[in-house]
Each structure stands twice: as structure tokens, then as C-alpha cells.
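This part of the workshop introduces the protein records we will be handling. A record pairs a protein's sequence with a compact description of its fold. Comparing a sequence with its C-alpha cells is the quickest way to learn the format. The record below serves as our worked example for the rest of this section:
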Amino acid sequence: MSSENYIWIKVLNEYGCSSSDTIIITKLISSLNKGETIDPDYLVFPNPFKENITLITSCTASTDYTIRITDLNGQVLKEQIIDEDSGYFILELPDLPAGIYILHMIDGQKTVRSCKIMKE
């Protein structure tokens, strides 16, 4: 499900001259459980997914990130070290059976974010 919003923006340069334009912002809305919110610093999509899942984060890590996929019992099914600084990662999970899992984002020894993901 997505929704579109039209926003009028006005930009001033260092001389005080302005320019304005209208932009369209499309926001993807996933089904959330009661009490869940969308964290703009940490986006995981599509959810549910078929083979690959994309992770976008604006968080900066002091060390490499580890992405860990576990089942609902906590059994580790996949672990991948992310050593890029781009904040954009694609996890390939074609062999993971359909089901519900937990994606953990770990900075060093500390889990900085966890979320449920579902494979179709």
C-alpha cells in the first residue's frame, strides 16, 4: 500500500534568492502490528519478501555491522557481516523457507535494532 503527498518547498540560497517547486513524496506503508512504528533510521523492505530483502540505515557504526537472521526460537539461520559504509544493503535469502523470522542488526556485541520479517 502506498500513499502520495504533494509538498510545496521553497529554498533560499546564501544570497536570499528563493526558488520553489512542488515535489511528490511516495511513502510505502506496510502492515504494522499494533504498537509498531516505522523507524526512519532503519528501513527493511519488502516485507514480506520473496528472495531478497533490502536494509537501509542512516546509523553509523563504530565497527562492521553483523546482520543475523533467526527463527522465532532464536536459532541462527544466517549471519552476514556488512563492512560497507553506504547504509544500503541487499541480503540474498533464496534458500530460507517461507515463514516469520527476526532480523537483528548488531554493532560489535550490541543489537542496535531487531524486526520481524516474513518470507512468502
The radius of gyration is 18 Å. The CA atoms of residues 6 and 81 lie 39 Å apart. Residues 33-119 form a domain with the Immunoglobulin-like fold (CATH 2.60.40.3080).
